[in-house]
């Protein structure tokens, strides 16, 4: 299955007339930087929380057996830490292709550690997209991640890169810590 959002994102064009745009990454965009950027800075957004509730049919899973990857869910009072990139709008041609499985660009305000705030974009895969898998227990999510793989590699690697990148940023995300703990349990049950 695919819910290709490339055309919708192109039409949503949120940066008419802008020479530079800030993009906030909270999942693979933190650690897989396969695009040019002018500047990057750790940042936070408010009102959104990171969840492994989105299906991946194209990168970390297949149409028959999707993986589980990160999306953002709206939650009052939540704060999500990630990485902000100042990029040229031309970069969105590549990013729209990469994030095509259900992710739409949305406008957010992002804050930097020094208190500065800028408007920019996030890619969000909302609950109405066809690839959305939704909520389940941490143990279910971990089992799913442990077995899935797709053209971009193991689902587990996607998760671990993200967990490691957040650790490097000094950020603690309870959802990520809980899944990591369940993955460790799966590993120790195998030995
Ligand atoms: C993001 O990282 O900001 C979007 C989701 C992903 O590519 O993992």
Low-confidence stretches: none
Number of helices: 6
Class derived from helix and strand content: alpha+beta
Strand sequence of the main sheet, in spatial order? Answer: 1-3-2-4-5
Oligomer: single chain
User: How large is the radius of gyration?
Assistant: 16 Å
Q: Please count the beta strands (DSSP E, at least 2 residues each).
A: 7
Instruction: Report the average pLDDT across residues.
Output: 95
In total, the number of domains comes to 1
What's the CATH class, please? Alpha Beta
- Portion of residues in beta strands equals 25-35%
- CATH-scheme architecture: Roll
Sketch the major β-sheet.
5 strands, antiparallel
Named CATH topology: Hypothetical upf0131 protein ytfp
Write the H/E string, N to C.
HEHEEHEEHEEHH
Q: Determine the CATH superfamily.
A: Gamma-glutamyl cyclotransferase-like
Which ligands accompany this protein?
Answer: succinic acid
Outline the structure in words.
The structure is a single chain. The protein has about 190 residues and is α+β, with helices and mostly antiparallel strands. It has one domain: Roll (Hypothetical upf0131 protein ytfp). The chain is built from six helices and seven strands, in the order αβαββαββαββαα. The protein has helices at about 5-10, 30, 90-100, 140-145, 155-170, 175-190, and strands at about 20-25, 40-55, 65-85, 105-110, 115-125, 150, 155. The chain has a five-stranded antiparallel sheet. The chain has a two-stranded antiparallel ribbon with strand order 6-7. A hairpin with a 4-residue loop joins strand 4 (about 105-110) and strand 5 (about 115-125). Helix 4 packs across helix 6. The protein is globular. The model has no long low-confidence stretch (mean pLDDT about 95). It binds succinic acid. Succinic acid binds near residues 29, 69 and 70. Succinic acid (SIN) binds near residues 26, 69 and 123.
């Amino acid at each position: 299955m695919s819910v290709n959002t490339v055309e919708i994102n192109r039409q949503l064009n949120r940066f008419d007339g802008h020479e530079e745009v800030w993009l906030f990454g909270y999942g693979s965009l933190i650690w897989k930087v396969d695009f040019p950027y002018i500047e990057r800075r750790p940042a936070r957004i408010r009102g959104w929380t990171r969840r492994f509730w989105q299906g991946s049919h194209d990168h970390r899973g297949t149409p028959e057996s999707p993986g589980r990857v990160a999306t953002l869910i709206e939650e009052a009072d939540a704060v999500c830490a990630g990485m902000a990139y100042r990029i040229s709008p031309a970069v969105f041609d590549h990013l729209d292709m990469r994030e095509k499985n259900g992710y739409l660009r949305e406008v957010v305000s992002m804050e930097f550690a020094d208190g500065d705030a800028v408007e920019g974009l996030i890619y969000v895969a909302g609950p109405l997209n066809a690839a959305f898998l939704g909520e389940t227990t941490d143990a279910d999510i971990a089992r799913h991640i442990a077995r899935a793989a797709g053209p971009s590699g193991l689902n587990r690697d996607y998760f671990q890169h993200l967990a490691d990148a957040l650790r490097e940023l000094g950020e603690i995300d309870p959802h990520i810590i809980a899944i990591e703990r369940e993955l460790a349990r799966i590993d120790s049950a195998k030995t």
